[in-house]
Amino acid sequence: MNLFETIDKTEHEQVIFCHNKDAGLKAIIAIHNTILGPALGGLRMYPYATEEQALTDVLRLSRGMTYKAAVSGLNLGGGKSIIIGDPKKDKSEALFRAFGRFLDSLGGRYITAEDVGIDVNDMEYVYQETENVVGVHQMHGGSGDPSPFTAFGTLQSIKASLELKYGNQNIGDYSYAIQGVGHVGIELVKLIHAEGGKMFVTDVNQEALDICRDQYGCEVVGLDEIYSVDADVYCPCALGATVNDETIEQFKFDIVCGSANNQLAENRHGDELEERGIIYAPDYAVNAGGLMNVSIELEGYNRERAMRMTRNIYYNISNIFKIAKRDNIPTWRAADRMGEERIAMMGKIQQPYMNQKKVKFSGRVKK
Ligand code: NAD
Questions:
Q1: Distance 259 CA to ligand 1 centre (A)
Q2: Is 88 a catalytic residue?
Q3: 264, 270 in Cβ contact below 8 A?
Q4: Those residues with Cβ within 8 angstroms of residue 366's Cβ, 6 or more apart along the chain or in another chain
Q5: By alpha-carbon position, which residue is closest to atom 29 of ligand 1?
Q6: Ligand 1 lined by 310 (C-beta under 6 Å)
Q7: Are residue 173 and residue 218 in the same domain, yes or no?
Q8: Minimum mean pLDDT among 182-186, 192-196, 300-304, 331-335: which range?
Q9: CA 133 vs CA 108, 109, 297, 298, 367: distances in Å
Q10: How far is the CA of 240 from the centre of ligand 1 (A)?
Q11: For residue 49, what pLDDT band results from cuts at 50, 70 and 90?
Q12: Final residue belonging to a domain, choices 133, 163, 180
């Protein structure tokens, strides 16, 4: 892989390779774009088969964070980091503290958080070495489980989609097919139940399904049946790539709006939804509630503020729909455009000199 050619294509600002032999640390930090603010994105630990796979993953994920922060109106850039290793076997205090020291050396250009393979105990070690961590334990003033915020943001997105399709936001007048009732899905079930919506649910976890049926009146359906139920809104809250050639054929839905990441198997499936008159609320704008919630930690965590910010997802999704109409493009493309326009505009209003940190001249003697 030609490194500079690769990061030139993906438009990254900085890619840092971190190595500590004694701690067994092999990590990559990718800072994609910091025009809007410090790059924020999770730390992932995964036993990548090759270093090239690890680099490809961190470049892709960090770029995604730039877009997510930008469409969400956050003053944050995009970044991500990975540790190459098996989370079941290779974790140690030294590993995470060594990573924390590298992170600290970036002076706040990149702020990390938990992602796949990392838990709050690992973050405790990172936090011992640097302030530049969010999603820390609540005893340190951290924000705790982001799922209720992600679910609340998903509900706002559903309302914006209903408004576009039917001209009203009456959750209770419509029906929902919810795939996955884990952390986010169950919170969404509670919110829709509170407004009287009819729900179909599916999951591989029978216990979770029993709760949905017994406490929230949901109708339980089979794993593959969820794609063809007669519901108005499909809410993918489990897996990626569930909008694909096979499933689209079965859809009777008017709207696709859920919390799962990477819902479209390929971008062309977003085009196809559009052609079929099915509204697609872009996933990374819908599920930004979790990111908004942790971002509040940077100013001192306040749950009320996080909730208020998450409510704005309604307007973010509505604006994406407006751009799609303005430019006559599918919504997935409109989301990217909205992010790019915001970054470009904020880049233009910056006055380069004033934005530099004041240079300290103490100790210098002019002769
Ligand atoms: P989770 O693991 O708690 O829940 C996922 C649920 O999906 C589980 O109940 C699991 O049993 C179920 N599931 C697994 N395979 C399934 C299948 N084949 N069919 C139906 N259900 C299946 O995860 P979560 O935190 O609730 O996140 C849900 C989705 O939202 C994920 O795609 C995640 O990346 C995304 N997301 C979550 C957050 C958050 O705040 N938790 C933020 C942004 C995005």
A1: 8
A2: no
A3: yes
A4: none
A5: 260
A6: no
A7: yes
A8: 300-304
A9: 9, 11, 9, 9, 44
A10: 9
A11: very high
A12: 133
